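Treating backbone geometry as a discrete language has practical consequences that deserve illustration. Part of our work consisted of pairing the sequence of a single chain with a tokenised description of its backbone. What the numbers capture is local backbone geometry rather than side-chain detail. For completeness, the protein is quoted in full, as a sequence line and a line of structure tokens:
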Amino acid sequence: MCAIMTICSGLWESFVGYDFRAYLPWEKFLSQDRRFGAIQKCLLVFLSYIIILNTVVPISLYVSVEFIRLLQSKWIDWDIKMFDETNNVSAQARTTTLNEELGQIEYIFSDKTGTLTQVIRIKIDEEFLKTLCFIFR
């Protein structure tokens, strides 16, 4: 994009912009020759466009990725194979990063019957332990 805009600027500067020097004079460090001055100005314009347009790509990439995440979460919502007939509920993706989080799952723990088990860890404080010791004496 910077190269296209620089080429257009160079063409305009060499054919049309040179005549506007009476109103907007070129800087002192640019050559007064029509072609060489236009080439010098093109190089400066190219660097300026790089500075100006360096935020365009990350913003458009961020918008594109978020749009893709939204479509993928809608596909999860519309998937017929993810419908639970016992509760009459379909899958609901409540966040757009759900598919990325599902990709991080490595292990699913189940018992001998194949049902999922739940590991519950209880934080036991000292007062609770004293109460249990008193009860079971």
In short: Residues 2-54 form one domain. The chain is about 55% helix and 0% strand.
